[in-house]
TrEMBL record:
Keywords from the named record: ATP-binding, Cell membrane, Membrane, Nucleotide-binding, Transport
Domain ABC transporter residue range list: 6-240
CDD domains in the record: ABC_NrtD_SsuB_transporters
UniProt xrefs under PANTHER family: NITRATE ABC TRANSPORTER ATP-BINDING PROTEIN (PTHR42788:SF7), TAURINE IMPORT ATP-BINDING PROTEIN-RELATED (PTHR42788)
Entry protein name: ABC-type nitrate/sulfonate/bicarbonate transport system, ATPase component
DNA repair keyword on record: no
Organism expressing this protein natively: Bermanella marisrubri
SUPFAM superfamilies: P-loop containing nucleoside triphosphate hydrolases
GO terms for cellular component: plasma membrane
InterPro entries listed in its UniProt record: AAA+_ATPase, ABC_transporter-like_ATP-bd, ABC_transporter-like_CS, ABC_transporter_ATP-bind, NO3_transporter_ATP-bd-like, P-loop_NTPase
Length: 271
């Protein structure tokens, strides 16, 4: 029996455009184990969000498919919760109510009202937001909104958490706090995670594997880097760790040497 939890199996994606068909992804294959943290990294436009959206069931593969726990997935489901870069909280609901909506969607039949309340509070506490539970999205900071978005996703008890640049719009300090929280949460809950990032340090710090994508059109997985740094990981200790810096250099070399954008190579050639 396969150990793999999630299988992205020969996925290709073709978009119809005014100039004919555009093949964004070609033959993407990836197996993810339970509890594994995988980052997707690659130049802008290479197809990272398309991969994530296909796993989320928000878009359909043109060829191939996605199999979770032995079942093909073709539509969105709470077992694949998504956190986007710009939070997608409902502005007229409080932090508590935003999480409540997700909890009701998944647990209405199996939990009593008081169990649902405890579960909502548990998830808000996980992301350190219980103190602001009654605040609306426009009353809290960007980092706090992302925390609520993560609580909402986790409250559905997803098999796999899909994150599209979840910390991309945040300042560096807030970003590092949230990265640390995410590492703590994942250590406790052991969710599988696929996270898109443009940040090489974020990828190395958080990931078990970094999936590096080639440039499109017809983008695919170029290389996969196994980051076997021991956990828990501490960003300050890692800053001077030779292995950490080796992984970092590997990703940078992939992105800026082996798979640089055409515009970048022109720049370096003319420099
Ligand atoms: N609906 C669509 N119709 C046509 N082309 C599309 C569509 N959606 C995406 N594309 C193209 O597919 C390619 C991959 O897009 P995608 O958003 O997945 O890239 P990305 O790696 O996530 O980019 P970024 O890092 O900038 O967010 C791009 O060339 C994009 O222009």
């Amino acid at each position: 029996m396969s150990q793999h939890h999630l299988l992205i199996d020969h996925v290709s994606k073709v978009f119809p455009t005014a100039n004919g068909e555009f093949e964004a992804l070609k033959d993407v294959n990836l197996k993810i184990n339970k509890g594994e943290f995988v980052s997707l990294i690659g130049h802008s436009g290479c197809g990272k969000s398309t991969v994530l959206n296909i796993v989320a069931g928000l878009q359909q593969a043109s060829k191939g498919g996605v199999i979770l726990e032995g079942k093909e997935v073709n539509e969105p489901g709470p077992e694949r919760a998504v956190v986007f870069q710009n939070h997608s909280l409902l502005p007229w609901l409080s932090a508590y109510q935003n999480v409540e909506l997700a909890v009701q969607q998944v647990f209405k039949k199996s939990m009593s009202k008081s169990q649902m309340h405890d579960w909502i509070m548990y998830n808000l506490k996980l992301v350190h937001m219980e103190h602001a539970k009654d605040k609306k999205p426009n009353e809290i900071s960007g980092g706090m909104k992302q925390r609520v978005g993560i609580a909402r996703a986790l409250s559905m008890e997803p098999e796999i958490l899909l994150m599209d640049e979840p910390f991309g719009a945040l300042d560096a300090l807030t970003r590092s706090h949230l990265q640390d929280s995410l590492m703590d949460i994942q250590r406790d809950l052991k969710n599988s995670v696929i996270m898109i990032t443009h940040d090489v340090d974020e990828a190395v710090l958080l990931s078990d594997r970094i999936v590096m994508m080639t440039n499109g059109p017809s983008a695919t997985i170029g290389e996969i880097l196994e980051v076997d740094l021991p956990r828990p990981r501490n960003r300050l200790e890692l800053a001077n760790d030779a292995r950490y810096n080796h992984f970092r250099a590997e990703v940078l070399t992939f992105l800026h040497d082996r798979h640089s954008l055409p515009s970048e190579s022109k720049l370096s050639a003319s420099a």
